[in-house]
C-alpha cells in the first residue's frame, strides 16, 4: 500500500480539528471523533507512571475546567507525522496549564478514517 502526503495531511487535520480543540475546549464529543474506543493512554507525569483507559481519560476531561474556560495558555503543535501503509505515528507538543507535554500518538486507518489508538506522553521542561 502506498502512503501519500494526503494521509499525513488528514492526520494533521484530525489533530487540529478534534484532538487539540477537544482538549482545549474540554469537548469529549470532538475527542471521540479521533480517539478509537479502545485507546489506551500511558505517561509519566513528574516522574510518576500514568495509565488510563479511554473512558477514564474522557471522564477526567469532562470533569475538569477546560484550558479555554480557565483562560490559561494552550497550544497544540504537530511536530511530525510518519505514515506507513495504514499505521502512523504523530509527535506533538501540547502546552496546557503549567505543563508542557511531548506526545507520541499512534494512528490506524480504520474504515478509511485515521483514528488515534494509543497515546503516550510525558511532561518536559519548556
Structure description:
The protein contains four helices and six strands. By secondary structure, it is an alpha+beta fold. It has one domain (5-123): Nuclear Transport Factor 2, Chain: A, CATH 3.10.450.50. A six-stranded mixed beta sheet has the order 2-1-6-5-4-3. Strand 3 (74-84) and strand 4 form a beta hairpin. It comes from Pedobacter panaciterrae. This is Nuclear transport factor 2 family protein.
For the largest beta-sheet, the strand count, sense and barrel status come to:
6 strands, mixed
Number of helices: 4
The CATH architecture is: Roll
Strand fraction band?
over 45%
Number of domains: 1
> Unreliable runs, pLDDT <50, ≥5 residues?
none
- Regarding CATH, which class? Alpha Beta
Query: Roughly what percent helix?
Result: 25-40%
> Order of strands side by side in the largest beta sheet?
2-1-6-5-4-3
In short:
This protein is an alpha+beta fold. It is 31% helix and 48% strand.
List the helices and strands and how they pair.
Elements: H1 5-25, H2 28-32, E1 35-45, E2 48-53, H3 54-62, H4 67-70, E3 74-84, E4 87-96, E5 99-110, E6 113-123
Parallel strand pairs: 1-6
Antiparallel strand pairs: 1-2, 3-4, 4-5, 5-6
Amino acid at each position: 500500500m502506498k502512503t501519500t502526503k494526503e494521509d499525513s495531511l488528514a492526520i494533521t487535520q484530525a489533530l487540529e480539528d478534534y484532538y487539540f480543540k477537544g482538549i482545549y475546549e474540554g469537548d469529549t464529543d470532538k475527542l471521540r471523533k479521533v480517539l478509537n474506543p479502545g485507546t489506551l493512554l500511558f505517561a509519566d507525569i513528574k516522574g510518576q507512571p500514568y495509565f488510563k483507559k479511554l473512558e477514564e481519560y474522557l471522564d477526567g476531561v469532562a470533569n475538569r475546567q477546560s484550558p479555554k474556560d480557565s483562560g490559561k495558555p494552550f497550544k497544540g503543535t504537530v511536530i511530525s507525522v510518519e505514515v506507513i501503509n495504514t499505521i502512523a505515528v504523530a509527535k506533538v507538543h501540547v502546552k496546557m496549564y503549567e505543563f508542557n507535554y511531548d506526545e507520541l500518538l499512534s494512528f490506524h486507518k480504520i474504515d478509511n478514517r485515521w483514528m488515534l489508538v494509543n497515546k503516550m506522553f510525558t511532561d518536559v521542561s519548556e
